Amino acid sequence: MMLRSCFAVLALLFSSLAFAFDAPPLRAAHGVLVDQAGMTVYTYDKDAAGSGKSSCVDTCARNWPPVKAPAGALPEPWSIVTREDGVVQLAHRGKPLYTFIKDKKAGDKAGDGVGKAWHVVEVPAR
Q: Buried b vs exposed e over 72-96: b needs ≥16 C-beta within 10 Å?
């Protein structure tokens, strides 16, 4: 009986660990990263990869809403940035991620190239 209980606890532990990592916070669609609603995500050239901070604040953040990070640990290439306002923002390869207020429907990429500083996050073909 004790052995069966130990196996049950181990099975529960492993299944909960697998659940924590089986769904990435974003997905690829048409060669770019998108959020769960299918909205394109962007990086900003003024953000230094791995700096742990975002350069897009105030009006910038209203036009380029930060992608909020999910709770819990994230596997590579995902990480988090804690913004000045306390929002925990998702980062990909160390670069904070944003959506764009002028993208109105899934798949829009109106922000790509804005100010020569905003770029979609391309996903290489497999």
A: eebeeebbbbebeeeeebbbbebbb
